[in-house]
Design goal:
239 residues; 10 helices; mainly alpha
């Protein structure tokens, strides 16, 4: 009976239309592309990795795109039924417990993600997409440690979880149910990171975050899990 209840789409009105989700992502990718072109002209983004002397500028531009995603999310949430608190489950009981549980889950998933990522980095050619995740994180961590820490542990988890688990997942769930909603949300979440090397770890992370959103009905758990996961990943790659 419990499994059937989880598999059944929510009867409540979704926070936004699925079409709005895709439009917001399209706007995000267009902005990211334009900034990427600007990076190329400015010489910040080289053919293979981030230029060490301009790592702080690179992270600042990443923060700009993350902030834009958060603005889009807030705009859609304000227009949704119940407003921001209702959409993100901020009015639900047990948010603190959900955050602690999410942090523990993120800490537990991180070693698996790290092992899968290192395996991919060892097995796959370094020239894939002319981009090595480890190189970029190492250089950014050395030359802009506070910025990369803020981006990965604060800004990115909040913006991405607010959008994907706060808006996208409930919108898909209301129409398709839990399983398909998790898959569709993951299919949108993973390409956002533009990393072939992290394909499997990101897929695993996204499915776990969707499960946390389903269990607690709030984005606080996914945000905490995402933040701890990113922190552990950053320390592991930079260490």
């Amino acid at each position: 009976m419990a499994a059937e209840m989880l598999a059944r789409p929510e009867s409540a009105v979704p926070p936004c239309r699925i079409r709005q989700i895709f439009i917001a992502l399209l706007l995000y990718f267009v902005l990211s592309f334009l900034l990427g072109v600007a990076l190329g002209f400015l010489g910040v983004l080289g053919p293979r990795a981030v230029a060490p002397r301009l790592a702080d500028e690179f992270v600042l531009l990443a923060l700009a795109t993350t902030g834009f995603l958060l603005l889009l999310t807030m705009h859609l949430a304000r227009r949704a039924r119940g407003g921001i608190r209702q959409v993100f489950g901020m009015a639900a009981q047990g948010k603190g417990l959900a955050s602690l549980f999410g942090a523990a889950v993120g800490f537990g998933v991180a070693p698996v993600g790290m092992a899968l990522l290192k395996l991919a980095m060892a097995q796959l050619p370094g020239g894939i997409l002319e981009f090595r995740l480890k190189t970029g994180l190492e250089e950014a961590a050395i030359h802009a440690p506070l910025l990369i820490l803020f981006l990965m542990v604060v800004a990115a988890p909040i913006a991405e979880e607010a959008f994907f688990r706060g808006l996208a997942y409930p919108a898909f769930r209301a129409r398709f149910g839990v399983t398909l909603a998790s898959l569709f949300t993951t299919l949108l979440f993973v390409p956002l990171h533009l990393s072939m090397l992290a394909l499997i770890p990101l897929t695993l992370l996204s499915l776990v975050l969707c499960l946390l959103r389903e269990v607690h009905g709030s984005v606080t758990g996914p945000i905490a899990a995402h933040a701890i996961y990113n922190l552990t990943l950053l320390l592991g790659l930079a260490g």
